[in-house]
Amino acid sequence: MDLKPGAGGQRVNRLVDPFAQISYHFLQFLWRTLHLLVSLWYLQVSMVQMIEGFLISSGLVKRYGALDIDKVRYLAIVVDSEEAYQISKVIQLLKWVEDMGVKHLCLYDSKGVLKTNKKTIMESLNNAMPFEEAVEKDVLLDQKQMTVEFASSSDGKEAITRAANVLFMKYLKYAKTGVGKEEPCFTEDQMDEALKAIGYKGPEPDLLLIYGPVRCHLGFSPWRLRYTEMVHMGPLRYMNLGSLKKAIHRFTTVQQNYGT
Amino acid sequence: MELYNGERPSVFRLLGKYMRKGLYSILTQGPIPTHIAFILDGNRRFAKKHKLPEGGGHKAGFLALLNVLTYCYELGVKYATIYAFSIDNFRRKPHEVQYVMDLMLEKIEGMIMEESIINAYDICVRFVGNLKLLSEPVKTAADKIMRATANNSKFVLLLAVCYTSTDEIVHAVEESSKDKLKSNEICNDGNGDCVIKIEEMEPYSEIKLVELERNTYINPYPDVLIRTSGETRLSNYLLWQTTNCILYSPHALWPEIGLRHVVWSVINFQRHYSYLEKHKEYLK
Q: What SUPFAM superfamilies does the record tag this protein with (chain A) (predicted)?
């Protein structure tokens, strides 16, 4: 965390009045003290979460013993790109997910670091298949292997832009000639079809786990996040099996109204 | 800023106002979010919890909304977006939908009556979403308040009604397509009808990402999104705009939201400001 001063902080060069200077420095002191207290609070929360995670991993908390993993039909994991370079940590995380019985997984980081290390990651997993291969062989419903999809920011808004061009070209192709032309009018189903036509067949995840400093989805495809539950797991270096189990258990107890 | 009533402020209200000012003078030593978005979740659960009559939760929620907007205005936040009504909400029971529409009309008409106060505070009110789905009286009232406050700029209140992100994305594709057609000026047969020949398709340049972004309903993008009731999903809201946005889900139901939640979201924004700015730069 790197605190940057705001508009109040940038007034220092223009302060001539000694009283104004004193009050500026006093406010800066109060602001930094506030943030120090907040940081200490988060430190204590992290320690409690680590202890809780350890207790859950050891099986001492019975509540998280049995997980209804079938409720997680599609799991997505977003990793901060800088942290994604810790490939061994990523592989350990995926092994936990595989052991828990998750059948479909999407791994995302905005810069595509995980995509670059796809081969290494897939070779480390016991029984996993790339998502594209599963789609090609039409074995998505086959529960024997975990499918893994790799995504980056180019699979989000840029993919939607490519799908937009597919729709636009289709519109041009079928526009009537000689008679009044209708204006472009598309539907969400047509956008779905356009995305599938250019190779984006991944479904909407039920649960998205964010490993990084901030609770932010970092550009995961906007088209696939409508009702996805998003849980912030903290930095990847502090990941533990207990927190993962707790997040999945919590998800299995959520009820959605879907706006009704 | 006192948004409502002409009553003389009480001592406690004045004391609260000055204490808030003191708190803001500390918070503004760091960066303040330009845009905060809200999902008003929990009105019905609040009504059930407190055994209120039908609609009581929404009324309490409206009062909470006024307070939160006051805090944002006082803190110097420039934009606030409220998820007032989703396209999905039309699937609720008809009397419930009608109640919300009637409440919306009542509040918009209230804003029209208080137009001079809204203009005095330099607040711009904009309704965004698929407004064609609104009933005529609500649409007319919304257009009226938008026209009346169009020139205001200190604080912009965006009310997302008849809105979903997926509908917004499709709308952006439609508008970008129309822009492409207009820029090629192919209407040439004198009767006003447009004729497109297959051989004229080639000169069209592709729709670019920046064009889609320009045609979304909501700009600029929010820095913080607050969804109450502890729910951790976006429910088809601002999916496009939240790439670099902090998502905050306090457990309080919407009518229970207070200054402490707004302040906590600003503190977390300040903690992660550098990280999110770096990520924005990378994606440009």
A: Undecaprenyl diphosphate synthase (SSF64005)
